[in-house]
Amino acid sequence: MKEEIVVHYFDYYAPKGLDEAIDIFAEYGERASALAGGTDLVLFMESGRLKPELVVEIPSCPPFVGLEMVDSQIRIGSRTTMRELETSPTVCLQISVLAEAASVVGSLQIRNMATIGGNICTASPAGDTLPALLVLDASVGLASKRGKRVVPIREFFVGPGKTVRQPDELLTEVFVPVPKSRIGSSFYKLAIRRYLDIAIVNAAALIAVNEYGVIIDAKIALGSVAPTPIRAYEAEERLIGNTLNDFVLDEAAILAQKASSPITDQRGTAEYRRIMVYRLTRRVVTEAYRKAIAQE
User: Fold this and answer.
1) 270-274 long-range CB contacts below 8 Å, 24 or more apart?
2) How far apart are CA 76 and CA 174, in angstroms?
3) What is the CATH number for 244?
4) Phi, psi at residue 149, to the nearest 5°?
């Protein structure tokens, strides 16, 4: 049986800048949908999940575009594509875990279109860049006629497909603090296929060590195992103050399992996901630690 495509009429508008875009969303609110890469929006509209009265093209101008160092942060415009993230020297050198995550989003064609702002606002529990952004302590910039605000990414997601962004707000940019020295990071996506597949589980870790190899900071994030991407805080605390050994690693992985609340769906059972949380946590923490102690 052929899949039914739902068609409905809508208006399209392409504002020339931030102020004009803000005015439109102040008027239309939930009746408008933002279009950047469109890789999610078009699918949602075809399936009937979204039926906007107005589709608003996000303008290709600041603050929606650009990838630059600003003081001790990297500012990423929300229209930045996955391909730009995976090939950016700044991202690859300073926040490589985000480049790793971006590199496994969809196919090459999709990565040339899909944007970081869209990946964040879709708020899928399995979103590939989201665990990476969580371990990087990223924040997102939101703008509306009421003003601008910055929200830590760990506070942004409230449920599957749901965020704290209000209907009249636009996600304009992402801010990522530049990690300090002696840090390592790692990302891994478990899926049936490497590309063009939704993660069964994905995981990211960022580890910082002192000159003796003792872990002084640890961040672990998991996707596709809870209603939102999550941090495994108790697992992180178990690592801090220790050099990495199999006993500490095992306990941290078990704590990461306890932080998860996976469901059974067509991609995997809840029990399989719990097992993979354990294994992926061990994998990304080990790799991140190896990279950290390799630095001078």
Assistant:
1) 272/200, 273/200, 273/201, 273/224, 273/225, 274/225
2) 5
3) 3.30.390.50
4) -150, 155
pLDDT the model gives residue 130:
99
| End-to-end Cα spacing for the chain | 60
Distances (CA, A) of 197 to 117, 225, 281: 20, 16, 21
| Structural domain for 115, as ranges | 67-177
Band (pLDDT 50/70/90 cuts) for residue 5 is: low
Backbone angles phi, psi at 261, to 5 degrees: -145, 65
Give the whole-angstrom CA distance, residue 56 versus residue 139: 24
CB 242 within 8 A of CB 215: yes
pLDDT, averaged across the chain? 95
Query: Where on the phi/psi map is residue 287: left (φ > 0), alpha (ψ -120 to 50), or beta?
Result: alpha
Angle of the 270-294 helix axis to the 246-259 helix axis, nearest 10: 140
Question: Whole-model pTM above 0.85?
Answer: yes
The reply to whether 189 and 288 lie within a common domain is yes
